[in-house]
Design goal:
By secondary structure, the chain is α/β, with parallel strands linked by helices. The chain has six helices and five strands.
Length: 158
């Protein structure tokens, strides 16, 4: 069964880290850092193996970050969509964004990681609704007016 809110999982992670006498560093490891994503083949407790590996590797802390969906996030997304689809207020994305309002205040994404020899080893978990939210962001940004490129040949023909 898919989780709608990862707050309990985050609490479990913090307790597990504390039990292993590991500190938590509140921070997100971005795409600009060399990293390897922990693949746990769908095991719900696969993140525990990452923690145990970190301890074996001599890590004294792990990074931990979460993303909580905020009302402002949805409003900003709706605004960008309106700018792109004006006057088409019937685009299916509007309905999808409105459906996400049920998720406001919930933790949709968690990242747990540690750095060893210059590489970040990461475990990431996301709710299905959060993955769809990210897809909507990517799609809207991809089609934003600022990213439209006109071919010079097309301009000469006009």
């Amino acid at each position: 069964m898919a989780q709608e809110n990862l707050v309990a999982l985050k609490d479990d992670m913090v307790a597990f880290l504390t039990g292993h006498e590991l500190l938590q560093f509140p921070g997100h490891v971005g795409d600009d850092v060399p990293s390897i994503l922990w693949e746990d083949q769908g095991h719900p407790d696969g993140w525990k193996r990452l923690v145990e590996t970190a301890k074996t590797a001599g890590a004294s802390f792990l990074t931990i970050s979460d993303v909580v969906l905020e009302e402002d996030d949805l409003e900003m997304l709706l605004e960008k969509l309106r700018e792109q689809n004006f006057p088409d207020e019937e685009a299916p994305e509007f309905e999808e964004i409105e459906a996400l309002r049920e998720q406001v205040g919930k933790v949709g994404f968690l990242q747990l990681g540690f750095v060893h020899q210059g590489v970040a080893f990461l475990h990431e978990t996301a709710c299905d609704w959060y993955e769809r939210y990210e897809e909507l962001i990517d799609a809207i940004e991809e089609f934003s007016i600022g990213n439209v490129v006109f071919d010079e040949d097309d301009e000469e023909e006009a």
